[in-house]
Amino acid sequence: MLDKKKVFPVLICIIALLLVGGCGRKASESAEEKKAVPVRVESLSARNLSEYRYFTGTVEAKGQVVVTAKMAGKIKEVLVKAGDKVRAGQVLVKLDEKDVISQVQQARAAYDAAEANYNRTKAQLDQELKRLESSVKQAEENYKNVSQNYERMKKLYEEGAVSQKDFEAIQLQYNVTKEQYESAKEQLELTKASTMPETLAATKSQVEQARAALSAAQSALENTLVTSPVDGTIGSVDAKVGQFISPGSIVAVVGDTGSFFVKINVTEDVINSVKVGQTAEVSVDSIGATLKATVTSASPYKDIKTGLYPVELRIENPPSDLKPGMFARVKIAVITYENVLAVPEECVLNKEDKKIVYTIEQNRAKANEVAVGPTVEGYTIIKEGLKEGLTVVVEGQEYLEDGSLVEVVVRGE
């Protein structure tokens, strides 16, 4: 099939020769008809455009992990061998748990004691609170009674009906009961606002510390069971019964060769455009394959060594000849423009500091001033100046002026 873009310039030359030759043409042919400019056109329609970036990475087997011990201990049992199929969470190696069980028991006893102390302290404080509330109530009653008597005696004293000695006696009683009432209230408020909360907080803290110690001991007991983190096949086992291992010691290697992924590192101007679930294209030149992939993780943190952001992609339907370690190139969209009007970038001309795109109306060229957006994959996005459905000149536009007579030689989609 002939390439339209290669044939089109030849057509222009032939038509131009026919126009200037004039031989065999009728004398009545108008000057405008002789000047008709051959063009190729397309109908303007909305499209989706994506801006891509390319990154390199290496194919890896998903789930291939090195299983290490989380704590020091003596190996009690080795439950798997190389080639065994295992499930995530399955126990591979058991460490001697006697000492750890003792630690758990001690931690639980300390926790139970701390919790009992908290409950006992709370009960005592509740009882003290009730006692103080009762004291305040009694002091208040005494104060009210004496106050009434005091007011009565004060009136009689002012009238001269009682002696100064009798009045001073009731006044002293009044002051004492008032002070007792205020002191009782102050003690109650202090207990509520300070003594009780602080005492309970202290005993509660002891409970939390004991709970944390118990949790740590229980975690240590769980860590005596070295488990597989993934489904897969045991590649190797580096553990023997009776062997003493330290935290971080390699126990086994587990791999899942049924799935593959590619890890790439992207720059900071790209990371915010990469989303989990996003599709991408992975090319593996060594096997001549172009494969689909899905982003499974995009780290929000830079890698300290590279200064880039790690991204992982899962390869969909990997072929049988794909192997770990193969070099891969990843093509991933970083910006997508949906349902935009766009023309081939060569359609946009610069004339007198204006962006011009030519359209065709009744065999005449119309110069349209446009506002443009970015150019993506050879297409320039038109923000203003054109509408969907217009006939746009995509070849021959450099020979046009506004109002030029045209001849459509090729009409595209």
Automatic annotation (TrEMBL):
InterPro entries: Beta-barrel_RND_2 (IPR058792), MdtA-like_BSH (IPR058625), RND_pump_MFP (IPR006143), YknX-like_C (IPR058637). One of its GO terms (cellular component) is efflux pump complex. GO terms for molecular function: efflux transmembrane transporter activity. Residues 262-333 form the CusB-like beta-barrel domain. Residues 104-220 form a coiled coil. Keywords: Coiled coil. It comes from the Bacteria. SUPFAM superfamilies: HlyD-like secretion proteins. Belongs to the membrane fusion protein (MFP) (TC 8.A.1) family. This is RND family efflux transporter, MFP subunit. It comes from Caldanaerovirga acetigignens.
